[in-house]
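Let us work through a complete example step by step.
Step 1: write down the sequence.
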Amino acid sequence: VRLASIDCPERKQPYSAVATKFTSGAIFSHQVTVVVDYKDRFGRSVGWVYYDDKNINEALLKAGLAWHFKRYSKDEKLQALEDEARVDKVGLWQDKNPIPPWDWRRGIRN
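Step 2: predict the structure and record it as tokens.
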């Protein structure tokens, strides 16, 4: 399952391991519900993961461990969660110049 409307750091990118640990810690041994929005061009499910009446997509933004993927989402609540994490310098927003994963994948690393 790919998480809808957010993009977490890539492997070897700063905060990648933190985001992975946060996600596994949140949902490990919990029953989750996946609401699939669509299948991407590679046939992967893209959607929302819920656990304990929480949304992991939103939790990652709030913890400063993901970007709101504005290219695919205009959700104002998700943008507000990212904006709040930025202002509070939570998670990856502690870095001076965090590199969005879509730039990292293209090799833009400075």
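Step 3: interpret the result. The first helix runs from residue 16 to 27.
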